[in-house]
Design a protein that fits this description.
Order of helices and strands: EEEEHE
Strand order of the largest sheet: 4-1-5
Number of strands: 5
Radius of gyration: 22 Å
Oligomer: single chain
Largest sheet: 3 strands, antiparallel
């Protein structure tokens, strides 16, 4: 999952200690992403589900009398 780090955070785990600074875009596994999001230190860089395209707009038919 890609996240944008919004405030400093230090993570510890099996891979050691990682220090992330604001402004970084990182790709992490689900467990690490959950830690960052729980600490409110990052936001998703990509939407979780693709947004549906809005329906095309249709013009109203013009009156023949105008």
């Amino acid at each position: 999952m890609k996240l944008i780090i919004t405030r400093p955070v230090v993570l510890t785990g099996a891979g050691g200690v990682r220090s992330l600074k604001p402004g970084l875009t990182v790709e992490v596994d689900a467990a690490t992403a959950e830690q960052i999001l729980e600490r409110q230190a990052g936001i998703p860089a990509e939407p979780a589900t693709p947004a549906e395209a809005p329906a095309p707009r249709r013009r109203k038919p013009t009156d023949a009398q105008t």
